[in-house]
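Q: What would this complex look like in 3D?
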Amino acid sequence: MIGLYVHWPYCPTKCAYCDFNAYLAPSAEAFEQYARALCREIVLASREEGLEGARVASIYFGGGTPSLFPTGSLVEVLDTLAARFKIDPDAEITAEANPSGLTRDALRTMRTSGVNRLSIGAQTFSTRLLATLGRDHSPEDIVRAVDRAREAGFDRLNLDVMFGLPDETDDLVLDTGFRALALGTEHLSAYALELEPETVFGRKARRGELVVPGEDDVARRAVLLQDLFADAGFLHYEVSNYARPGEASRHNLHTWRRGRYRGFGAGAHSFVGERRFWNHRHPAHYERIVSSGRLPVEAGEDVEEIARGEWVYLALRIFRLEAGRFRRTFGESLEQAFPRTLDWALGEGWLRLDGEDYVVAEDRRWLLNQIAAPFLQEGRDPVHRSS
Amino acid sequence: MTDREKIRNFSIVAHIDHGKSTLADRLIELTGLLDARRMTDQVLDTMDIERERGITIKAQTARLPYTARDGETYILNLIDTPGHVDFSYEVSRSLAASEGALLVVDATQGVEAQTLANLDASLNVGLTVIPVINKTDLPSADIPSVTQELETLGFDPAEILHVSAKEGTGVAEVLEALVERVPPPGGKEDAPLRALVFDSHFDAYRGVVAHIRVVDGKIAVGARIRLMASGKAYEVVSLGTFAPTPTPGESLGSGEVGWVAAGIKNLSDARVGDTLTLAEGGAASPLPGYRPALPMVFAGLYPSEPSDYDLLKDALEKLRLNDAAITYEPETSEALGFGFRAGFLGLLHLDVVQERLEREFDLDLVTTAPQVVYLATLTSGQKVRVENPAHFPSPGEVQSVEEPIVRARIFTPKAHVGAVMEICQARRGKILNLEYPSPDRALLTYAIPLSEIMYDFFDQLKSRTRGYASLDYELQGHEVADMVRVDILLNGEVVDALSFICHRTEAERRGRDICQKLRRLIPRQLFELPIQAAIGSKILARETIPAVRKDVLAKCYGGDITRKRKLLEKQRAGKKRMRRVGRVELPQEAFMAILKTDGS
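A: Here is my prediction, written as structure tokens for the whole assembly.
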């Protein structure tokens, strides 16, 4: 069973913090040309990699701004996927959406073409912070987007919010949290801002023109949101993700459980077999290669050697190392693979045992990097495995 | 062997950058030894570091045949002297091998502190000094003022030569003046051999090559010789002159300058200043003035990678072959692992050694804060030398501590005298003298603790006098002072490599400085981390690093697991360069930053 990812690399505006593979939207013609390349890549890849007929339980349209997708093209891409893969009838099909320019028509077409989950990039309900981030929508647009999505028949919605923003206060973060909760979505994502060097924010920060909250403030706000969402009945099932029971993103969980996925589109990442690889980032370059009948893969790495460490590194993000799943995957127990690190992690209070699973201690959820690195290291070191 | 009457032995002395090496190059060029095309600039400064810094560390020598205007051919032995205060002992010994000295003064700068020091040293060994104003071609040259300054030093304007070593003008007059004014060498041709070792170097094929000036008697290949200070005897395998590269010969007679190879294995067996004589029927007493050069400054040298310890050990051994002044012994630090405690003639010497180790041996070093040698008298009456803060006696067992004091001479424009006095007073300096050698320049003489001029003193002097001040100093003696050892504690544990000795009045300020610096440099740990500075159990300063609160990646873009994982592993790889002190991981950079800002 694999997950599918489709990348839409265009946005109406470029946000100041974003270093994703996204470009300002050109013409409608360019959109269609890109969609054609997508379909072509899907056909090529499924054939060359022997993925035809593979079972698919989740599809994710990410970006960029996939809600910009011309509706005709979206249908075309979904049809192509359906023709090549065996998509579960109850597959989770998510599209990311921008609150601005979400028309009723577009939403309805999306819904009827099979998209059944919408992830709306709210980011914040502060007008001032939205401007700082370079977003092209207002808090009211977010409310309207949720209303319209419900009208169009979406019963699974996510809102993305951000914290750790310049000039933010605890109250602003809580206000955004409350207003996000008030919209009654099934899922909430809360991301701490990360300063990426090649962004407007990154450059400003280097020049000292942008000041972001310090570690203590960011950590406190992470916990404020965590508590707020938990009190409202949401489960904190991944570092940045909260869901009502049964509403966790399956595509998301699939990734953290080291499930295989195939990504299509410019800069899209794939994980097939024991190889992770990625496409050329620039849409024009990507299209040129695909139209010449070749796969647009730029590079990749074999991860067989680091498979165990990677497995733990990813599982830590959902706070649970499932012992049975590890054993079924690798034919040995977690204790056999990580004798030293597990011992240390238990002793230092990082992990506790829950049955035979290892669970991340509640108060260490915001410190995962500190524990992930030793696992990656021991996972690389073959010494213990031969003994 | 050359007729003594036709020999002139001379040195060139100058303040740094006044053009000593350029003048040496022109003299060599003009006597036809090397043609201009083959001359690399400054032939005599051979080490990269010397050339880059424009300083001479190891003295080198050249034998220049010169046909003077009187039609006679003379042998001019140029004995090039090291040019920095750290090597003042070497300077004085190589000067003792000459009869004359060219005192070079920059026409745009005038007399500076090292000009005076060099003049004193030259007069002390009875040299004929020829004043030379250099760089007369520069538009900013002020010959009248410089002439006046030289006059106050006792020179007659008529004897001052005007030269542009760069352009080559006036250099011929310098050669003539050497022939006319510098006396031929004295010494007794018939007396038993006495030769002064004024330098030495290590040669991979010949072993130690001693640079000598024969005073009495003569030395020939095959002779059995003895070094009078070390007492060791050898047979002369080969000898010769510097032309300027070593050129073999048969013998060297009274007054001559050359080199001797005698299968000497260890540079410390042929120390600068020692007297070479015959093993049998040798001289009864050595030439005056020998003393071994004593290290004045000590520091710990540690490899950044603990596995490089053996490399460092090898490198130090090799370096000592060419630099008898370095001393070192193994040392262990809890924080830095295995390394060496090394002694140096001064801070520049330390710098040069450190740079050579890193450059020539490709080592990455951590150097602990340099420290001077203290003499402690214990309550038991016993006297001990303290070269390492770790060995500083505890407050209960020490009766008194003496610190080394230097006599510092500072030349400055009159307008900056106040600033210089301020700096010196802030560093516990006592003024000994203030004079005005020329109307707008002052010469201040201070007694000041050596430890006080080790940290950024010269930088301060330069910046407060707009770069005009010049400094020279020499060790004067030891004085009782209220010194204490300050320890730096992380999480309650002493970080041995960060301990330092300072005056009690300075302890709190410096302790607080280091604590604050560490607070900025040490990454947050999983627990709250106190940083303290203390004398014994008395805490002087405290800072606290809060525990790490958030360390997790927010988002993995579109399934890009690889990039974030690599980021994490890179951070982790950085941790290999962490030094562990108790439960605390201390980044290498923290050590470097503390030691750097404090140590230079």
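A: To summarize the key features: Residues 99 and 142 of chain A are 5 Å apart (CA to CA). The longest strand of chain A covers residues 86-97.
Q: Very helpful, thank you.
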